[in-house]
Amino acid sequence: MTSESTAKLAQLMTDVIQTACERASASGLMPSDETKKFLLKRVSPNNALNFDSLERYWVVLLDELSQILDRILAYQYVVKYRKILNSGPQELSMAWQIHSQSLRSGELYIVQDRTCEFLKFLSHVGRDCGITIADQTKTFEKAFKKTFERRLRERHRVVHAHERPSRESRIISLSGQTSPLPRDVIDGILQETFEKTIPVLQRVSSQLGKEPPMSVEAVEKIHEEGAVNEARLMLDLVAKALLTTIGLMK
Q: How many Cα atoms are found within 13 Å in the side-chain-facing hemisphere of 23?
């Protein structure tokens, strides 16, 4: 997935929102009190004085949308950072092992939460501008949670100590270098975990008609392709919600 994927969506939204805001302002339409509350969450009180009409609301909307789309675009590289970090000190690689899991699921949650808030803001501005709006906040949130249920669940596991760690959590935790366990014990646990994981990946690959992974490199490729696919899914969900909200998609 390249920047062209997100740029097209951003440009389409810009064309619609900018035109609507400028036309509404020229017609004397004013932002509602509720819309002003959403604006104050995004700009300082002093800066908010520059938004007494709807004319420049599109700037705030598109700035926020750009930040969301940039996160989606960057998401696919989360699993590749380690290839650069592995050339550094061992402590750096260890830190990455710990942080990578929460970073991936955390980015998903950020996109979910910020998109929901953006959709609410977009809906209020759109209505003030006289556009027929179909608020997609709840629909988007439900679809996003269903699509990324496993990743979002993993985020919960990492944060809360009372949760039983997943197989992925155990592999990442044991890969660190500060465990008080003897190295041979750690290696044994890791080996046992990998032996249970590889057959699952092979079975799923066969079901999908793909070549089953027979090496660490093949597993890494699946890992990286998974991140790219998740980024595409995120973009699809966000695009559908945005375009449905302003009536360009049903």
A: 13
